[in-house]
Amino acid sequence: MSAAFMTFGGFCLYMICQCYLTFKVTPHVTKWSVFYYRLAFTILSCFSLLFAIVFGVTAAHIYHQTYPDLPTPRPWSRRFYQPGYEFHQISAISEWTCAIFQIFFMQSFGPEFEEISVQFFLQSKYNSAESGISDSERDELETQHII
């Protein structure tokens, strides 16, 4: 549960920061609809994370009231009586919901990255005299797109 908390909790913090930055640059860089979209999925994701934590801790607490000497089951199942199983299911569903909301949040960056273009040029650090290839051989290789 600690890895899930760090992963989803860290990304929720990223979403909050990104949502704030989107709010600050909205009239100049992007549209208000993008900000509201990101805000909605940030709020939904944070609430889903909160539900996952609360119901996960509640499930473990209820389980340990009945079986104080046993570790929390990994994975939970219905093979034997496990009190708190229903709360664990709610926690797992909330965790997956949080992940889905975070994916939808990331999709909002698509239109902003469509306008970015990258150009690069390759240049050999050796000239033809140093490489042992004559100029005519080099021209022939370039026309064949080998160099």
Please tell me the total number of domains. 1
N→C terminal distance:
53 Å
Instruction: Supply Rg.
Output: 27 Å
What spatial form do the alpha-carbon principal axes imply? Answer: elongated
Q: Unreliable stretches, pLDDT < 50, 5 or more residues?
A: none
Query: What structural category arises from helix and sheet content?
Result: mainly alpha
Write down the secondary-structure element order.
Answer: HHHHHH
Give the number of helices. Answer: 6
Helicity level: over 70%
Total strands: the figure is: 0
Could you state the oligomeric state of the chains shown? single chain
Could you explain how this protein is built, in words?
By secondary structure, the protein is mostly helical. The chain has one domain (2-117). Helix content is 71%, strand content 0%. It is built from six helices and no strands. It has helices spanning 2-29, 32-66, 85-107, 110-114, 128-131, 135-143. It is elongated. The two termini are 53 Å apart. The model has no long low-confidence stretch (mean pLDDT 82).
Pick out its properties.
147 residues, mainly alpha, elongated, membrane, CWH43-like N-terminal domain-containing protein, transmembrane, transmembrane helix, DRAM/TMEM150_Autophagy_Mod
Quick synopsis:
The chain contains 6 helices and no strands. The chain has 147 residues and is mainly α.
Topology readout:
Layout: H1 2-29, H2 32-66, H3 85-107, H4 110-114, H5 128-131, H6 135-143
Helix pairs in contact: 1-2, 1-3, 2-3
Protein name: CWH43-like N-terminal domain-containing protein
Domain CWH43-like N-terminal: 2-115
Main location: membrane
